[in-house]
Design a protein that fits this description.
three-stranded antiparallel sheet; 10 strands; 30% helix
Amino acid sequence: MKTLLDIENWPRKEHFHFFRQFDEPFFGATVEIDCTAAYANSKKLDSSFFIYYLHKTLVVVNTIEPFRYRILDDKIYINDRINASATIGRPDGTFGFSLIEYNHSFDIFKATALAEIERIQTTTGLFTRSFESDNVIHFSAIPWLNFTSLSHARSFAAPDSCPKISFGKVMVAENGKRTMPMSIHVHHGLIDGLQLGSFVDYFQEIMNQ
């Protein structure tokens, strides 16, 4: 479900109309995340770390309202729920686009994610399903690379307002501390640096729990 945002009475009305005219309206940042506690918790829950931090990412996305905004026909809609379209790798080196539905319960989410990962890994091709709605984040993991910045391949002609969130290689320090890079790209017509900062702060907070 989604509801229409009243743009005329939205404090960011001028910002939206300004940035949506850009050929490239997305901006982003790369930050380092302390994942020491989160990695340990994922093992206690008998979960892959990927599924664990994907769930935490969706918790934050669904908590901070602007990350649920999407642009359709020059209007802004607020989605009730945002899911993940994550790239899932296969043994042959290819990957496919998935659709993993969000659930606040980690156990339910884990079961859903495992089923979708298995489906992708037993199919071929990039698009193995249709995507009827844009109530997703574009999500990817690059566990082989400790990157400090990241760009995305995009078609400027195609309408797109979905946040793009990527994670890199987990690095382990001599004292046992684990860190990993996180890149977040968002549509500037919908989200500013303030909300981006709130996203990172809250994500780090729940990763520390």
